[in-house]
Amino acid sequence: MSEYRIPFNKPAIIGKELDYVAQSVLSGHISGDGTFSKRCQRFLSERFGAEQVLMTTSCTAALELAAHLCDLDPGDEVVMPSYTFVSTANAFALRGARIVFVDIRPDTLNMDETLLEGVVTDRTRAIVPVHYAGVACEMDTINDIARKCGALVVEDAAQGVNAKYRDAYLGTIGDLGTYSFHETKNFICGEGGAFLTNNRSFHDRAEIIRQKGTNRSQFLRGQVDKYTWMEVGSSYAPADMLCAFLYAQLENMEEITGKRRNIYDRYLTLLTPLADRGLLTLPTIPRHCQSNYHMFYILLADLETRTNLIDHLKRNGILAVFHYVPLHTSPVGKNMGYREGMLPVTESLSERLLRLPMYYGLGEEDIVQVTDCVAEFFGVS
């Protein structure tokens, strides 16, 4: 049990999760690519308009698969925000790429697309937009710049499952897309992810790389009479039991999204008076973006205010947390030649951002307690 009365996150059983896990076990096939793996892939493909969906053990694995498909040579450049999880950078660094960090927008905290033309070069092979908090990056501009420089666009939509940019679902807009179903995400199975693409030229290789570099998937479909090692790959297929749990969550996608939207809207309503006084800044969703309400964060005046508010909430049994430490200021980032001060918006916002509790089981009373506690910190009754 959590030591906090209101934890930051709390996984939930929404529907038939346990029944489906039992069905998977009783089927006799609990390893990868069983019945529920295929159901999840079909659901995501049909729902989001993705020609190919492959379930993976994590979004990290999906990113590594995508990076492999980019055919990077040592010294090739990959552009991404510094304000992201380490997996985004690791996937491409493992392929020998040089990571080029770009600053973020102060409104959405997404990659600042207006800076891209100043950092892409003839060595740029991929651009990796990270859709922060389930709000889309400016994909039209990013795709245009990528086409001009001959780079692939790999969407890190770990937080963006069931969110849209204009009329398209995140993860299906670039050349390659990746999802997360980690327990902190909207739709969960503990650890899990998915790789997506609408570019048919990647389909065969993606299957091969995911299956340890073999053509086992073709063998199982009866397309070849035996399978063998085709190229270097890895083991990215998740256990069917995990996909069984996930499938029940996907079946309830609209209910989960609706509940999260209600929580998001209540936070907005209750915290707007504090924002109107200039005590904090609320998140922004551009009108042409449809969020999946993955996260609710506030921006505070400075690091000291955030630290003190975190402590105040903890004393009241509420866990609120900050997010990424910018990758360019990490030991690895500094070894790449980056220094503090190079990405000022990223550095400022990362020190001031605080994520409030956000999960399916968060009730009205909980939301009121969180917002009342924030107001109390600022001396507002």
Please, could you describe this protein's structure?
- The chain has 13 helices and 12 strands.
- It has a 7-stranded mixed beta sheet with strand order 1-9-8-5-4-2-3, with helices on both faces. It has a 3-stranded antiparallel beta sheet with strand order 7-6-10, with no helix packed on it.
- Strand 4, helix 5 and strand 5 form a beta-alpha-beta unit.
- The protein has 2 domains: 235 residues, Type I PLP-dependent aspartate aminotransferase-like (Major domain) (Aspartate Aminotransferase, domain 2, 3-Layer(aba) Sandwich), CATH 3.40.640.10; 125 residues, Alpha-Beta Complex (Aspartate Aminotransferase, domain 1), CATH 3.90.1150.10.
- With 381 residues, it is an alpha/beta fold.
- Helices cover 38% and strands 12% of the residues.
- The longest helix is centred in the last third of the chain and has 24 residues.
Topology:
Elements lengths: L16 H10 L8 H14 L3 E5 L2 H11 L7 E5 L4 H8 L4 E5 L21 E4 L11 H11 L2 E5 L7 E2 L2 E2 L6 E5 L12 E5 L5 H8 L5 H5 L19 H12 L1 H24 L12 E2 L6 E3 L3 H13 L15 H5 L8 H9 E3 L8 H14 L4
Parallel strand pairs: 2-3, 2-4, 4-5, 5-8
Antiparallel strand pairs: 1-9, 6-7, 6-10, 8-9, 11-12
Helix pairs in contact: 1-8, 2-8, 3-4, 3-6, 9-13
* CATH C-level of the largest domain: Alpha Beta
Counted by DSSP, the helix tally is 13
Percent helix: 25-40%
Number of domains: 2
The CATH architecture name of the largest domain reads: 3-Layer(aba) Sandwich
CATH superfamily of the largest domain: Type I PLP-dependent aspartate aminotransferase-like (Major domain)
Q: Look up the CATH topology of the largest domain.
A: Aspartate Aminotransferase, domain 2
Low-confidence segments: none
- The count of DSSP E runs of length 2 or more, i.e. the number of strands, is 12
Strand content: 5-15%
Based on Cα principal axes, name the global outline.
Answer: globular
What is the H/E order? HHEHEHEEHEEEEEHHHHEEHHHEH
Structural class: alpha/beta
Task: Output the strand order for the largest sheet.
Answer: 1-9-8-5-4-2-3
Mean of all residue-level pLDDT scores: 97
